[in-house]
Amino acid sequence: MDIGELETTAALAQIDLGNGDLERLGEAVSQMLAHFEKMNTVDTEGLEPTTHALVRDNRVRADDVTPSPLADAMIDQAPEREDRFFVIPNVL
Fold it and tell me: Rounded to whole angstroms, how far apart are CA atoms 46 and 50?
């Protein structure tokens, strides 16, 4: 990426860069582009796309309904209830 392209990009991003900053940004962008070129040389044929590099499997437990004696004990202690629901005062 040449200096003109960097100046245009910085102006579009509304970033005010001085000369020293522009040169450092140019070097950083060149290094990034070199890394991207290296990544293009890796053979990815037949690999499935991923959303995250570290996710190996689904880490979420199964959504199974299990009875809980704690729920019944809490409902029994409610000051006012209707069936298995808490009764609260109207807000409005």
Answer: 12
